[in-house]
Amino acid sequence: MEDLLRLFLRSVFVENLALAFFLGMCTFLAVSKNVKTALGLGIAVIVIQTITVPANNLIFQHVLKQGALGWLDGEEPATNESQAAQARAEEGDTIAPQEQSTPAGVTAGGQAGSTESGRFRFADLDLTFLGLISYIGVIAAMVQILEMTLDRYFPPLYNALGIFLPLITVNCAILGGTLFMVERNYDFTSSVVYGVGSGTGWALAIVALAGIREKLKYSDVPDGLKGLGITFITAGLMSLAFLSFSGV
Amino acid sequence: MTPLRKALDKTEPLFHKGGKLERLYPVYEALDTFLYTPGQVTRGPSHVRDGMDLKRMMSLVIVSLLPAIYMAMWNTGYQANLALVEQAQAGVFVTDPSGEKGMLPEELRAKLGTDEGISVEDAQPLAHQVGWRGRILDATTGIDPDSFLSNLLHGTLWFLPVYLVTMVAGGTCEAIFSIVRGHEINEGFLVTGMLFPLTLPPTIPLWETALGIMFGVVLGKEVFGGTGRNFLNPALTARAFLYFAYPGEISGDKVWNAANAVPTVADGYTSATTLNTMNAPGATLDAIHVTWWDAFLGTIEGSMGETSVLGAIIGAAILIAVGVGSWRIMAACVIGLVGTSGILYAAALAGYSANAMWLMPPWWHLVVGGFAFGAVWMATDPVSASMTRTGMWWYGILIGFMTILIRAVNPAFPEGIMLAILFGNVFAPLIDYFVVQANIKRRLARNVA
Description:
The complex is a heterodimer. Chain A is an all-alpha fold. Chain A has eleven helices and no strands. The longest helix of chain A has 30 residues, at 35-64. Chain A is elongated. Chain B is mostly helical. Helix content of chain B is 62%, strand content 0%. Chain B is built from 20 helices and no strands. In chain B, helix 3 runs antiparallel to helix 7 (148-181) and helix 3 packs parallel to helix 8. Chain B is globular, with a radius of gyration of 25 Å. The chains are: A mainly alpha, B mainly alpha. The interface between A and B is medium-sized, with 29 and 36 residues.
């Protein structure tokens, strides 16, 4: 429980997707002109992130990961190698999927070839190369559903978000959240917490930026810096203030 | 009319439109209004206004800072003198300001290992500061922690260069921006330029001081259009920049005492602040080497102007009495700090504590570190703080809460007030926004019903 709370706080503040990793900058800078729209987009990102990260986690853990499809092999007794590979894949730790799969796959395949004349087994299958396209597919589907929901039930917000809602599909913060989840090999519960947390962190950042930008309307910014220039400086100074969490 | 006024009036046309020095008008204007009152008067229909203009406001902040400035000069010298004599008693000192390691005379060396030890009177003549400061001190008052003059002079020799560099470097940036952009030089910089050196440790290298204040003035303020248009406190922006860019010179346990400028002394002498000590792994409450009253009065090591809580209370009284600082923000900061540290303290007493910082009672949290200084002079900055009354409470409580969070939960930083205020600044406009929205909603409901 305490670990989950820590993970949540980490993902909101310490590893804030916008202000620590500077992900999702295009929408972060473009839709932060007023608090109301920023709040709407922030909530949309929280929703999308909360759904897609756990969904992608299921896909990763149960389909793509090395050995995840081992149960399709049926009753056949598993060899030592594939057991070892499976065990390693399940323990997982923090090793990146590629790193842990390549050597295991090679040895398992090689030895299997020598003993069992190269029979195909699902346990050896490593589908992580399909990761990017599957995750993006899930995200695109989710965004589409959200868009239709907003269009039907909250037309003002739908109109305010405009083109940026479909653009969430290719928002690097959303894909980034999923890829961080894969890289850190979260289990399902952690991925739910991480999805909520990282979405909340990004939403918090964009709403705060919108608040500041509403205030900066009364500023007298030099011509060359007007618009995006000063917003970049503002975002930089904000991340300076967010450094208070680094090291937690 | 005084000769000064005459001289100013005589040169004034030079700076007007079409004059030879037209471009330098902001410099002239700053000098004139610094010496005299601004010449603007109300024309046309009267406005609702009070007697507060920007100049009066900023000057009053400087007046309220006097106790902190005094402590910066006296206490910096006192701590350095104390440490130098103490180290000389242990046989560590330099022969003269050139920095050569000193050797104890025969009769004193015999005393060194004994119970009697070297007395303060014997040690005092041996103590020296290095460099030009050492030469001035040797020629005048010497090193003597009991002498008011010696303390004051020693401290001033450290504080004044930092202050002058701040004013020159920051003032130049300010003047260049004013001239190019055609706005007037603002008194706001006097306050920023006073606050910034007070938050620095005495041994800060001067080039870093210059770099820091330039960052603070240009990126913290001038790119947004000058005083009143920024969203972060410029002095704290400058300090935070130095804090993350050059952590070696502004954090740790070797920088808080000017005595550390003497290399032989620095080897054996740590000048850890109370918060540094408590933040070390395995520390206990016994590790605090000062009394509560020392911390309250400010005779402890730390950034030059931050140590005295008494000074901050006097400053707060002045600010509140003249209506410049917001008592709501100050009170809310204290509530946030006491509340949060009280919860942690209660948890620690109940047996659950993550580190020694949790065991620190709230009344200690109030007096150590820069909390009092930050809450009185930094958090109340009217430009970067929340503007609505309800918002001020939330803003202050957020700062107090974050201060304890950074002190007690984040092992990376011993002190949290600087980052807590910057964090509060970031969320201040948002707090205002929600307060205003709630107000609109409430009044709508009232009128419709």
